[in-house]
Inverse folding.
């Protein structure tokens, strides 16, 4: 099963992930985790050597001007050395996904970029040319969508690669469905 | 490699396919074939036992009232017996995909349904609950889309399962891009 395929031949799936907006829950959002689990269970399955996952987290600009945006994280250890250097926001989120990939045995890379999530995701998809972009989706109704905006709708319309939007399951919806 | 997984555990991918609109070209449309090849090359890959493809072709109602809409085709032979009985429109299209799946070694089923493609596809997706719906897309500009309509946009918005729309590559666009 563990035949290593040359990288040019693997299917590269980009996952746009974000932090939870729920207070006291400083981890990946429910819909990001749902999109990841769908990708592993329904697409990668047991064929771990055939895929590479590219995790992109986009965060709002920092007020203190600190930047550590261009590092690439591919192994759980990469986060340990980083932690002693600086506690960059959003990286515990990527650490979660990179560690999960490491356990499962599927190759991955992870980035943090700064800016407007929907635009940065589309720009990075254009640059990286993944075979598929997977984005989570809170499954909001039309009224809630107007208020909360949806990154997934924008990506489905504007990204230059195939995009699949994975709706959060009703059973996982928090008390305020705009939360995630 | 040929470990047969129980069906409940395979990833079921529904592909909505249609006939080419190009004269003298009575086969699958360019974008349908593109969507199929993407599914095989980028998702199924060598993991043929982990997937089942569900081909759905929706056609306009027949004027002569003839109906053969509820048959299921899963093997190339199914089309041979059908051919001696009746030459239903649209089935050579499904025969193409079922034969390709048979050669590749991935399980499949195929149907023809009658009605408005975008609505029937969403209804069948609701009934069949696939893990992913793949639809081809001519990649038309906004002006052409108004004239030609796009089934894929409707499905992305309204289907209850994850949907990915696969754009036709620019190199495969026929002289009239509304053709497919």
């Amino acid at each position: 099963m563990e035949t290593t395929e040359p990288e040019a031949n693997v299917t590269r799936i980009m996952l746009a992930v974000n932090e939870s907006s729920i207070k006291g829950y400083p981890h990946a959002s429910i819909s990001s985790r749902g999109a990841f689990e769908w990708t592993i269970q329904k697409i990668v399955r047991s064929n771990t050597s055939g895929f590479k996952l590219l995790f992109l987290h986009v965060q709002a600009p920092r007020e203190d001007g600190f930047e550590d945006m261009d590092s690439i994280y591919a192994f759980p250890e990469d986060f340990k050395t980083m932690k002693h250097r600086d506690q960059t926001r959003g990286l515990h989120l990527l650490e979660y996904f990179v560690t999960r990939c490491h356990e499962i045995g599927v190759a991955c890379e992870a980035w943090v970029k700064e800016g407007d999530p929907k635009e940065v995701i589309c720009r990075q998809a254009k640059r990286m040319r993944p075979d598929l972009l997977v984005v989570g989706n809170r499954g909001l109704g039309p009224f809630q969508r107007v208020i909360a905006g949806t990154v997934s709708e924008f990506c489905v319309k504007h990204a230059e690669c195939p995009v699949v939007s994975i709706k959060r399951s009703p059973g996982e919806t928090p008390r305020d469905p705009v939360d995630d």
User: Anything to note?
Assistant: The CA atoms of residues 79 and 95 of chain B lie 6 Å apart. The mean pLDDT of chain B is 84. Chain B has one domain: 11-60+76-167.
